[in-house]
Amino acid sequence: MRIYRLLGIGERLLEERRRLNLSQTEMGKLGGVSLNTYYSYEKGTRKPDSDFFEKVYVAGVDVLYVVAGVRNNASLNNDESALLAQYNKLDARMRSAVLALMQTYNSEA
């Protein structure tokens, strides 16, 4: 298990939302909360409750990461874990470039 840079729950929730390519409205709906409530989670002015986490977990949110800053790599093999670790070090611009490259490569295969 690897602990990632020190971010708050709101910042890690934002990372997960972006990883899943969801809007704030979509993430709020998945978690059963309004847009305003979800926005306050990302801003750090409110903390999500267990009901919210149960609902977004089903949608693929890495709840362990959001709450504790530890990625849940239990189901990943070594190559996948290494790839994810390197990807998480990239800034948003580079992440977009990597994803575009992978999508282009996979559409040609």
Keywords for this entry:
109 residues, mainly alpha, 434 Repressor (Amino-terminal Domain), 7 helices, 65% helix, 0% strand
How would you describe this protein?
- The chain has 109 residues and is an all-alpha fold.
- Helices cover 65% and strands 0% of the residues.
- The protein is built from 7 helices and no strands.
- The radius of gyration is 15 Å and the shape is globular.
- The protein starts with 8 loop residues before the first helix and ends with a helix.
Report the radius of gyration as a whole number of Å: 15 Å
Determine the number of helices (DSSP H or I, runs of at least 4 residues): 7
Q: Round the mean pLDDT to the nearest integer and report it.
A: 86
Which percent band covers the strand fraction?
A: under 5%
In the CATH classification, which architecture of the largest domain applies?
Orthogonal Bundle
Q: What are the low-pLDDT stretches, counting only 5+ consecutive residues below 50?
A: none
Helix content: 55-70%
* CATH-defined fold name of the largest domain: 434 Repressor (Amino-terminal Domain)
Order of helices and strands: HHHHHHH
Span of the ends, CA to CA: 33 Å
Multimeric status of the protein: single chain
What CATH first level of the largest domain would be assigned?
Mainly Alpha
User: Would you tell me the structural class of the helices and strands?
Assistant: mainly alpha
The CATH superfamily of the largest domain turns out to be lambda repressor-like DNA-binding domains
**How would a crystallographer describe the biggest sheet?**
none
**Beta-strand segment tally:** 0
Q: What general outline do the C-alpha atoms trace? A: globular
How many structural units, i.e. domains? 2
